[in-house]
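Quick question, first post here. What does this chain look like in 3D?
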Amino acid sequence: MRFLTKKILKQGKKFVEKIESTRASFLHWLCYLYGIFILRGILEGFLEHSHRFPKLIHLLVHWPFWYFNFLITIALILFFTTKEKIEKITRAVFLFSFLLLIVPLVDFLVSGGKGFILAYCMSTGSVLGVLLTFGGLYGKSIITPGESLAIWLAIVLIFFYVFIRNNSIRKAIVAVFLFYLAGTFYASFPLGLALLFGLEQSFNHEVAILTILFLLCLAVVQSIAWLYLYDRKIAKAFLQNLKLLRAGHYMGVTALGALFAVYIFPTLSFNLKSLFAALLSIFFAFEFCLVYNNIYDNYIPKNIKKHQYEKIGYGLLFFSLFFAALINTSAMVFLFLAIVMGLYYSIPPFRLKKLGFLNNLVIGLISVLASGIGFLSQLPYISKIPLGAGIVVFITFSLAANIKDLKDRERDGNEGIKTLPVLLGYKKGLKAVALLSSVSFIIAPALLGFLYLSIIGAFFGTLNYLLLNKVKREEVTFALYFIFAIIFGLALLYRVV
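> Answer (accepted):
Ran it through. Tokens below.
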């Protein structure tokens, strides 16, 4: 018996190592997974009770991100219980994702062609039912026969994977237990969202949108955790170069665009979920463009290869587009244009940042597009965006963008980029930048005809000029800008401009 156990373990280890050594690029794995997820969604639609093609938002976003998150969670569980390399574990987990196709097929056969409707736990009783029925083997629960088979196949595979790697039954049981808890969480988190936001305890459209946003956010968090476990150097290089203040600018402009839409169209009800999607979309788009800016500005550490750092960019673009897809087509068009302009700003042969102080016009244009995305998150018609408001945003942030040139003066000088601090020298350049950024506080409210905000803007502009000349750091302007943006937003929301 002992000899047989050793033989099985040896053969099992060879099989696992063969799977782990499967070579495929990042893009290949994404395509493979997404293909499995789409096929699973189509089968669910046609083989369950409804027998019809599923809604595109569920097929292309909801279900794929549900499965993606669950698979990443399984990979993380296996990492912490085996201490094997995360990329090897992930290959094995992703490769076996084809087992997801078992669920709709088995359900269809067991039901005699009628199919089962897959559902989330939307009550405390159904959550307990999932927990206490041992993967659907005992008692009544929302778990279908196909899901039950898939759960127990996963339990067996996880148990043997951990046991083969560690030769430890205790760790294998721990891994299975964590998997079971994770499965219960993924089956019931929409109930938690419904309770948290005071919504009806049923899987309606509002809960579905919240679920999708939650899954996208969770995918971001888990992807960062995975990246950190995969290569801490790359993760640290990415996190250290986030430039959150500058990302915050574009998110702030996006939020103001949304509030301006509600201000000029009083009958609109404020769509917080669409705005949330817009903010995350613009954040990831900015960070995607920043990855390429860092590559061509040589901001990444020398011990990190360019192609490794670029992979982070692919992930950021991926998340940006998916969040934009939750808004509407018009917002996606604006996002695409913003990304193109962001890339043209940094990468050869365009490298628009070499235009000197005129490169700030590009920042102004991208700010217009960001505010447009915010506007479109509330009203999905490009024709409704006021041209005058776009011009105001362009002028305001073309002037304010000069603030970024203070920090980069030495590098810009070495590269021959003629910014104001380079052309005028540091002292005169500082005063010029302080003046332009201070004027930008007044321009927007004044041109839009907002009297009270113009007075407040004049106060903030004066304060910015005095503090910036004294402290000489862009953080001063950003801090005042964010405070003023909050006041501006609240004034629009409560119509006290």
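The longest helix spans residues 169-196.
The chain has a mean pLDDT of 88.
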